[in-house]
Every structure is written in C-alpha cells, then in structure tokens.
Amino acid sequence: MVSNFNFVSFIERLFFKPSILDWVVIFLLFPLAFIYGMVMLIRRLITSPKRYNVPIISIGNLTVGGSGKTPFVIALASRYEETFILSRGYGRQSHGLIEVSQRGKIVTDVYHSGDEPMLMAQSLPHASVIVSENRKIAIDLAIQKGAKVIFLDDGFNRVDIDKLDILLFPQKIRNYFPFPAGPFREFYWTKGLADLNLVENHDFHRLVEIDNLQSQMVLVTAISNPERLDAFLPEGVVDRIYLEDHAYFDEQNLHDILVASNATSLLVTEKDEVKMENFKLPLSVMRLKLQIKNEVFDKVDSYIKSH
Prior knowledge:
The protein is α/β, with parallel strands linked by helices. It has a domain at 50-204 and 291-305: Rossmann fold. 31% of the residues lie in helices and 23% in strands. It has helices at residues 6-16, 20-28, 30-46, 69-77, 110-113, 115-123, 135-144, 251-260, 270-273, 294-305, and strands spanning 2-3, 56-60, 83-87, 98-102, 105-106, 128-131, 149-153, 164-169, 196-199, 204-211, 217-221, 237-242, 265-269, 283-292. An eight-stranded mixed β-sheet has the order 5-4-6-3-7-2-8-9, sandwiched between helices. A hairpin with a 2-residue loop joins strand 4 and strand 5 (105-106). Helix 4 packs parallel to helix 6. The longest helix is centred in the N-terminal third of the chain and has 17 residues, at 30-46. The radius of gyration is 20 Å and the shape is globular. The termini are far apart.
C-alpha cells in the first residue's frame, strides 16, 4: 500500500510520468504554460545581473522537485574554505534571514531552517549556511562574514545575480512543458544560458548506502517525486508511506505506522532524518553521495580562480 496526497500524486504523475489521459490535461494547460514561459523569459532578458567580488556558484534545475541539488552542493562546498551556502529554505516554519550554521556550528533548529539547509549544515562541518528569501541580503551578510566562496542552492532563476550556473537534469524527461502544464520553471531551451548542464548517470551518479539495514522496513519519506527512490530500495520494504515534500513528521504517527506495518525500522532519507533527530524510533537511513566527473570540479575551480 502507498499512502499519499491525491492532488500531489496527480501533479507528480502529470509532470514526471504522464499517462495518455494526462496529455489531454497538459495540452489544455499549454496556453497558460506558454504565457508563464514568456513572462519568465522577458524577466530574464530585461534584468541586469549584479556582479560581486566573491565567486558565486548556483546549483539548480529547470524542473520543480528534487534532482540531487542538495548532495551536489555538499559535494562541491566540501572542497573549499570559508564557504557559505545560501538557500531559500523551502518548507521552513520561519521567515526572513536566519543563520543555520556558523563555520559548522548549528545555531538554529530544523523548523526554522528547513530540512535541506539543516542537512547541508550537518554535512559541512567547516561551512556556514544561511536561509533567506532575499538572496542579495544573504550574499551581503556572507561577504561581511568573510565568505571566500558562495553557493546558491537552487539559484538559476535569480537572474539579478552574476554567477556560475550549474543545472542538473534527470536521465529521462517525459514532459518538457513549463508550469502549469509541465515541471519546467522556464522554457526547456533556457538551459543554453547555463554554464554547465549535467545529466544524471552521465555527468554524475548517485551512490546509496543504508545504515542499519533491516529485513522488514517501512519506507516513510517527504520528498518530491518519491518514486525516484525505487531504484535504490533494498529487499525487505514491506510498506511505503509518501508525505508531501518538506512535510514534518509526528513521532506518535510514525510509531503507529511502524506497528501497523509489523516492521522493525523506518526506512528514511537523510533529508527526512534531520526532522526526526530526537525521535525514539528505529531508523534505517539511506545515505546518498554523488560521484561527479572531474571536469565539473575543474570548471568550478577555474571560475573561482578567475575571481
């Protein structure tokens, strides 16, 4: 059995695995998608980006949902000193600018930071993480605090900032339309404006290890398009519970799920785990790392040296 939100499930199918009937909806939505794409294009064409005296690297994607941005940021940021990661902090229960970590020291909780910024903060013991809807204010603070390199999490659409743009793409794309007919935030061909376009299983590969592997586990996760985990699931998954992306968990509810499924542990991602830090529940955690081509590191190194 798979439990999920019906509307969210429909949208994810429409965007990532459309059926024949879904294509009828997609084409009905095409006029709105075209208008949306044109608005985003005009915005990009009329905006002059501001250049900073610190190298800024954006890791983003053209589609909504997960594409490996967080582990990619972690992999890149871990290679440099005095690094700052700036994120909007999707799903956080707070507003404004909040420092998540200061050179590795966690200074807030996951409810104020959001799950992905907290995961980055915990994974990067020498970096600083800031969340803010206003990226320019966050950049100014990072520079004030001595940033030598700044990484923007999901910053391709920040056309007002001069930066190195890296876009991540899944190996297969079935719907190339902009929102709301498809998953793209801009026209697909806008990728030509990025500095690097990287495709999963070609330019980077996911490596998954599972801590505390059990013979009977129930998968509980709150990530976008959770079916992308299927390729990495081990034997012994007796049930799957899908929550909305960035959703927070209730410990008692998870306990009830564990008992009802007759499982010995909850199988979760690292992004889920940071929201269960004080839960007294048995967890099996999917640890994700990326294997990235050396050419990508060389390109980023060259950009940083140019500053």
